[in-house]
Amino acid sequence: MTDTAAGTRGGFPQISPVENAPPELGRFADAMRRLQDLTVSTNPDSSLWASAAQYVENACALLDGHQAPEHEAPAGRVLELPGLGHPLLPPWTLTESGPDGVTMQGHFTRSHVGGNNAVHGGMIPLFYDWLFGMVVSTAGIRPTRTAYLHVDYRKITPIDAPLTATGRISNTDGRKVFIFSTMTSADGSLLSEANGLMVRLLPHQP
Asked: Which of 57, 116, 119, 185 is the most buried (most CB within 10 A)?
């Protein structure tokens, strides 16, 4: 835990990647993403909604009581899994990482649609914010917070299509870390690009 001044709220727990996550976590996260896709793409009758809700509620009951602090729960910390094993992150996987930047590959699904089978415009900044965090983490710069994030949309981002995103540190200035990122389709077309500022936190900052 980062040292903090007495009586001051702040500090970050040491959150590290999980090397030996339960293999069933990936299966569970995949099923949760599938459930999200089906929730927004099906139109069953009321009885089927009720039956499905009961199954989901039963799953919640199984997990309830096993909550763990964020630095202990494995979801969101497994580099080998799509979305790091976090079911609310899109199924992207880290393929290259280092001090010079990161590359991720993956796709968006039906639950990310904003309209006309295109990825919701608000989903793109969320993805880039995640990518920015991966950039600073793999460069050993942490903890940080996002100060600003700007996205330029160049083309519609499709769902269920292989995509590639890269991010790199473009400049640093004291605690400020400037990042530039792009997202491209399989044919190399530029779909969007983003630049942002991550700020390394002081020990007392939350």
From this structure: 119
Amino acid letter for position 127? F
Instruction: Record the pTM.
Output: 0.90
Whole-angstrom CA distances from 70 to 12, 73, 80, 191 are: 11, 5, 18, 33
Burial of 53 (0-12, 13-18, 19+ CB in 10 A): exposed
Angle at 128 (CA atoms; ends 69, 146), nearest 5 degrees: 65
Is the torsion defined by CA of 2, 132, 79, 119 positive or negative?
positive
Q: What's the Cα-to-Cα distance from 72 to each of 13, 16, 56, 97, rounded to whole Å?
A: 10, 9, 24, 23
Domains of the chain by residue range: 23-200
User: Which SS3 state, helix, strand or coil, does residue 45 take?
Assistant: coil
Q: Could you list the mean pLDDT of each consecutive 10-residue stretch along the chain, which spans 206 residues?
A: 44 81 94 98 98 98 95 93 96 94 98 96 98 95 95 98 98 97 99 98 86
pLDDT at residue 19, rounded to an integer: 85
| Domain 23-200, second-level architecture | Roll (3.10)
Q: Which residue has the tokens 């996260």?
A: 29
Residue tagged 């996987």 (tokens): 93
